[in-house]
Amino acid sequence: MSLLADVGAATPTRRGRRPGELTRGAGLGLGVGVLWLSLLVLLPLAAIAASAFDDGVAGFWSAVTDAEALATIRFTVGAAALVTVVNAVVGTLIAWVLVRDRFPGRRVLEVVIDVPFALPTIVAGLVLITLYGPSGPFGVNLVGTRAGVVLALLFVTLPFVVRSVQPLLIDADREVEQAAASLGADGFTIFRRVVLPTLTPAIVSGAALSFARALGEFGSVILISANLVGKTQVSSSYILTMIESQEPTAAAAVATLLLVVAVVVLVVLDVVQRRTARRG
Amino acid sequence: MADAGAQAPVRRARRRTTRTAWVLRVIAVGYVLALVALPVASVVQHTFADGLGPVWDVLTSDDFLAALRLTVVVAGVAVVLNTVLGVGMGVLLARYRFPGRRLVSAVIDLPVSISPVVVGVALILVYGTYGWFGGALESIGIRVIFAVPGMVLATVLVSLPLVLREIVPTLEEAGLEQEQAAQSLGANAWQRFWRITLPTIRWALAYGVALSLARSLGEFGAVRVVSGSVSGVSQTLTLYVNDSYQELGPDAQRQAFAAAFVLMTVAVVLIVVIAALRPKEDRS
């Protein structure tokens, strides 16, 4: 609310204000927007953090070090990390193929990449089960396995790295690569020494987004994981179980952990983007 | 390949990169095929395994229609709210400098980066019966959690920045000159918005709205937490898919697949619309 007061104080009513200074109407709009965001985002998130510490730091600690909670956190973080690494490699590769290669069906591939973004997560889960479930044509049944969870996470995070790397590859200056080639560098060396350094910020931000998404994923995982406690239960699912069994402190404690990681990821992304922007 | 081998050494270098390109191409296409395209195709096949009749029966059943209606209402309201917020805050963030500007921007981005379940739980802790405001709201007859308002709030949260993030770059690129010119010619704020700002951002706005709609129609986790999912009452299409699938038996499975097929079709249509909007946005 102090934000609002500041804005009000900085609102001059005279004409000929400097560009960028708030007018009275803009200030009012900002006030309404900030109020809406407070009710919608800030208060609920504050409530999570507050409930996590309802029983003090000791209560929070015992909630997150509970055997079940610990197992689900360990599994979720591990799966998210694995998915992030796979995405960083395969996503870059797919972006490369989409930008540098020309073959029939490339445009279809381009559209298919976006399917995981638009497909409802629960449908994504169902989709994977039909192919990799008990009645799938390949005879592989990943329902109730950790591999199944990883598969679902790979599905929903597929577009992140591809879509963040692609624009950079399109804009990349190919003359530098040609110069390296004319000096005798082979394809791999050119990629490692010339292309990769320019792509790194984009790969990092795409990978960070994948990690955040995988860490909090629920809908696509829930059917294929079968929610086996201690084995395939992801943190989101654990939080839901806790809130439904009237244990809001336990739910809020694990939720707070996920929240902190999400904030850290956003900050890292911001730093990476700023640094890239400054380098121009 | 065969005649390339007979060419001069210069060509051999090219042939080698072609082979690498082939390997990369096969990996990329194979990965996307196995992970996305084949599973999606198999759902279509699964849905229509027994022909059109049973699917039609599901699509005309009361529970399905109730879920469809609720989904349209919740997603529709959420998209309208997010479009108003997105355009309003987008203009403010792009055109004005004020204390806390970056903080506001970060707050808008935050909800999509966190787990939808956390979003739902957060809403329960504030607006649930035992939450901070829930008791007071219920005493004046407003029920948020386990009712439509909560489902709308959850859906708004998970698609909060989508409109805004599309229009802010367009606004920043367009700059202020046209607006200042209009202002100096005596146009008021409202006229400037309708005649200049809105035409400038229209493609970005359409793109953002399509994205929000796709996300809102398909939201599951956050809505699952705050809805209670009573069939015919507080069950959206995604919840209908989940609940049907969890029930055993061929009829329930058919319901799940039929509803999933509908959601999938809508998603694919929206992707095509989005893909069609993207180049126009670049041009503007």
Structural write-up:
- The complex is a heterodimer of chains A (280) and B (284).
- Chain A is mostly helical and 280 residues long.
- Chain A folds into two domains: 2-52, no CATH class; 56-279, MetI-like fold (Orthogonal Bundle), CATH 1.10.3720.
- In chain A, 78% of the residues lie in helices and 0% in strands.
- Chain A has twelve helices and no strands.
- The longest helix of chain A is centred in the N-terminal third of the chain and has 34 residues, at 67-100.
- The radius of gyration of chain A is 23 Å and the shape is globular.
- Chain B has 284 residues and is mainly alpha-helical.
- In chain B, helix 3 packs across helix 14 (250-283) and helix 4 packs parallel to helix 9.
- Chain B has helices at 2-5, 9-47, 52-59, 62-95, 101-113, 116-127, 134-139, 148-158, 162-174, 177-184, 189-218, 221-227, 237-246, 250-283.
- The two termini of chain B are 43 Å apart.
- Chain B has two domains: 2-46; 51-283, Orthogonal Bundle (MetI-like fold).
- Chain B is globular, with a radius of gyration of 25 Å.
- Residues 1-14 of chain B have low confidence and may be disordered.
- Chains A and B meet through helix 1, helix 2, helix 4, helix 5 and helix 6 of A and helix 2, helix 4, helix 5, helix 6 and helix 8 of B.
Provide a brief overview of the structure.
The complex is a heterodimer of chains A (280) and B (284). Chain A has 280 residues and is mostly helical.
